[in-house]
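Q: Here's a chain of 199 amino acids. Please give me its 3D structure as C-alpha cells.
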Amino acid sequence: MVRTCSRTIELDPDILSTPFKIETNWYVLTGAACTGKTTLIELVAEKGYQIVPESARIFFEQEMEKGRALADIRKDEGSLQREIAAMQWKFEHTCDPNRATFLDRALPDSLTFYRVSGLNPNEILPKCYFHRYSAVFLLDRLPLHRDQTLGPEDDETSEFLNEWLLRDYRALGYHVIKVPVLPPPERLAFILQRISEKQ
C-alpha cells in the first residue's frame, strides 16, 4: 500500500537546478515490477553491450545467501532502500562514463522508491546529479505476477511506481522514452533504433 504522505513530497527546486557533474553514454531501463526489464537487459548483454544489473535484485540475493528470509530483509523498508541506493551508487561509480552501458534501473529510481517507503526523496536527490544518462527508457507494464517480484508491488503500488518514475526522471530534465509492450526482441530493436536516431 502506497503511503499518502510520500506522494505529496515535492522535489526541492533549489536542488533541481544543480548542474550534472559527468555526462555519460549510459542508457537506463526502468519501470515498475513485471515490465520485462530483466529479460531485456539479458538480450542487451547478448548483443555485447556492458550492462549493470538491478542493484535491488543483487542485494536481495546476497542477503538471502546469508540465510536471511525475504520478510526479514523487507522489515525496515527505509533502511532497505538506503542500502539499495548505496549499492547503485557504488555500481555506477565503477562504470566508464564513455562506454555504452545499459542500466537495469539507475540512481534516480530511488527517488520514487523512497516515496513508496515513506522516505523523503530529497535525501537522495543531490546524488542524482553526479551522472547524466544519455537516455531513459520506461517500459510499459506487463501483467503483474506477484511471485516474480521481490518488491512490495501490488497493482496499486506498481501503478504509482510507473507514474512517479516518469515524473521524477522528467523533473531531473530527462526526456523519458516509453517502450510499448512488444515481444522482447522487438522491444530491444525499438530501443536500439531510438538510440541510433539520437546519435
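Q: Can you summarize the key feature?
A: The mean pLDDT is 90.
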